């Protein structure tokens, strides 16, 4: 785990950067402070009048500073940090999405997330003795260009989704998905190749 100084919404504070495979305790003071910063921004974003497009865009850019041109996020939205979400141009995130970005969530250009999509980078140990200590670990999620993730889908830690992919609504993506396919189910599997 490394810490870097970076401005938050209103004050200078430490941001905690976790790398692939890093273990951490959510109760660590730096982790808790970082989480509180994000929760405050999320509260403001999710409670801003939808007609106040200027304020909403300013808050979205503070919350998700690494998103490209044309990014649009519909409230309510929830994330762990925001600054670990790096999305390309024309990213769209529909209602009620949850992105647990304790490490990198890298999203390509022209990606659409349906309502209630969940993306997780945080995992718990399988061993119950380790799990009972409260320790957790992170694995990044990578989504390619021109991907459509159907509503209520879940993408688990460590998954890579290729370019030009459709994830059917209600799927649970537990493993990597190759380019140019439709995938769906629990767990998601390739249903059809896209010509």
Strand order of the largest sheet: 4-7-10-15-18-20-21
Strand content: 25-35%
Overall geometric form: globular
Helix amount: 10-25%
The strand count comes to 21
Order of helices and strands: EEEHHEEEEEEEEEHEEEEEEEEE
Quickly count the helices: 3
Rg, nearest Å? 17 Å
What would you note in describing this structure?
This protein is of the alpha/beta class. It has helices spanning 29-46, 53-63, 128-131, and strands at 2-7, 12-17, 23-24, 72-73, 77-79, 85-87, 92-93, 97-100, 105-107, 112-113, 118-120, 122-123, 136-138, 141-143, 148-149, 154-155, 160-161, 166-167, 172-173, 181-184, 189-193. The strands form 5 sheets. The chain has a 7-stranded mixed β-sheet, with no helix packed on it. It has a 5-stranded parallel β-sheet with strand order 5-8-11-16-19. The protein has a 4-stranded parallel β-sheet with strand order 6-9-14-17, with no helix packed on it. The longest helix has 18 residues, at 29-46. The protein is globular, with a radius of gyration of 17 Å.
Short description:
The protein has 3 helices and 21 strands.
Write the layout of secondary structure elements.
Blueprint: E1 2-7, E2 12-17, E3 23-24, H1 29-46, H2 53-63, E4 72-73, E5 77-79, E6 85-87, E7 92-93, E8 97-100, E9 105-107, E10 112-113, E11 118-120, E12 122-123, H3 128-131, E13 136-138, E14 141-143, E15 148-149, E16 154-155, E17 160-161, E18 166-167, E19 172-173, E20 181-184, E21 189-193
Parallel strand pairs: 4-7, 5-8, 6-9, 7-10, 8-11, 9-14, 10-15, 11-16, 14-17, 15-18, 16-19, 18-20
Antiparallel strand pairs: 1-2, 3-13, 12-13, 20-21
Helix pairs in contact: 1-2
């Amino acid at each position: 785990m490394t810490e870097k100084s970076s401005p938050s919404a209103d004050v200078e504070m430490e941001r905690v950067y976790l790398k692939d495979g890093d273990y951490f305790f959510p109760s660590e003071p730096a982790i808790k402070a970082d989480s509180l910063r994000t929760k405050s921004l999320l509260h403001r974003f999710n409670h801003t009048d939808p007609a106040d497009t200027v304020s909403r865009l300013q808050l979205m850019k503070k919350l998700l500073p690494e998103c490209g041109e044309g990014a649009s996020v519909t409230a309510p939205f929830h994330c762990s940090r925001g600054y670990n979400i790096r999305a390309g141009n024309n990213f769209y995130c529909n209602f009620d999405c949850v992105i647990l970005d304790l490490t990198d969530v890298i999203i390509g250009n022209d990606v659409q997330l349906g309502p209630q999509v969940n993306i997780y980078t945080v995992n718990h140990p399988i061993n119950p003795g380790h799990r009972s200590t409260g320790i957790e670990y992170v694995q990044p999620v990578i989504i390619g260009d021109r991907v459509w993730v159907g509503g209520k889908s879940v993408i688990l830690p460590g998954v890579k989704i290729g370019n030009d992919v459709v994830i059917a609504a209600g799927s649970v993506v537990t493993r990597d998905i190759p380019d140019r396919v439709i995938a769906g189910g629990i767990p998601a599997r390739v249903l059809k190749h896209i010509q």
